Amino acid sequence: MDVWDAGLQPERTRLAWQRTALALLTAGLVVARFVGHHHSPAGVVIAAAACVMAGAIGVVSTRHYRLANQQLAAEQPLHDGTVNLLTTLAFLLVGIGAAIFVLIG
Predict the structure, then answer these.
(1) Structure confidence by residue, pLDDT tens digits, 19-69
(2) Where along the chain do its domains lie?
(3) How far is the C-alpha of 17 from the C-alpha of 105, rounded, in Å?
């Protein structure tokens, strides 16, 4: 059975992860802006964390794309879900920031 698909599925997946990282960055900065209006240090921390995590997701997803291409071509099992864990943690951070904003307001 041939698992390698010469199509663009890994490319589409990489682009989806890039959109996710951009959405995280945008949501993090919006939440940081609202939280920073009431509590400036918390806003700075949320903004910095969102920027760092969005960058990390971008880097890890690019590495994920390269590895997936190589592993599919070699018909090897795919690797772990590190990028999924990073994304979950990042959106949890943004959600906590939004909860702080609601509680402050």
Answers:
(1) 988 888 888 888 888 877 777 887 788 788 888 888 888 888 888 788 877
(2) 9-104
(3) 33
